[in-house]
Amino acid sequence: MTDEFIDDDEDYRYLNPKHQRNLTVTIFGNGFPSEARIVTLKQSETENKFINIHEQQNPNPKLQRKFTVTIFENRVSITVTKRAGIVRQWLSRIKNRNRNKLTKRSLVVGLGVQWQPPHTNKVATLQLCVGSQCLIFHICRSNGIPLILRDFLSDGNVTFVGVRNYEDAERLYNDYNLKVKHVLELGYIAGYKGVSMEKLASLILGFDGVKKIESVGRSEWDQRELSEKQVEYACVDAYISFEIGKKLNAWKYV
């Protein structure tokens, strides 16, 4: 199977107060002053400058939605689904493509979960990332949890990594009885315990300017359909975790 990517690199913006700066300039000509209003775009404080997302055309969006996220020129293919069958297919492909790493116990997987505050709410999404492939399982809306996912999370040959993920495994177990065998906090093994994902991305990967937008992180993750901003947020979290884990050879720490 060949992964399909969208090649449209255009960045569309709307002129609104968050993205613009207004200047009034007085112009003198023929002895008469006149005023001109100039609108200049500025980088929004709620956007990631080097990250773009595109939704792909999909004949059956009820089963899954497909996106491509470009993160510092690295393209990541995202599958968003509520269906256990799609999760089963995605994990089967990942395991087949990484048989050698599974045998050597060197497979690293970026793992993250999202829920809407407060903490009493159940985990709404589970995201996994391996290489350029990311799965966002809308688990709170799912029609079931496939056995292959339970087996994958509890596989001793897989190392799951994240940033400030101290309670992710506990929450997955409490909410869905999903056991994660090996889960590591990347700041700890990098010697930067408690440091944010944004800071680790800069220090270890050279990705300067990554932002975890608080309003998105605290949004309604249990709504019927995830927004593009939520998909981007979840993907970036899992992808950067994977890349840092790979860079640090995280499997050596379990």
From TrEMBL:
GO molecular function: 3'-5' exonuclease activity; nucleic acid binding
Name under which the protein is recorded: 3'-5' exonuclease domain-containing protein
Species in which this protein is naturally found: Aquilegia coerulea (Rocky mountain columbine)
InterPro entries (alphabetical): 3'-5'_exonuclease_dom, 3-5_Exonuclease_domain, RNaseH-like_sf, RNaseH_sf
CDD domains in UniProt: WRN_exo
Gene Ontology CC annotations of this record: cytoplasm; nucleus
A Pfam short name: DNA_pol_A_exo1
Record carries keyword Hydrolase: yes
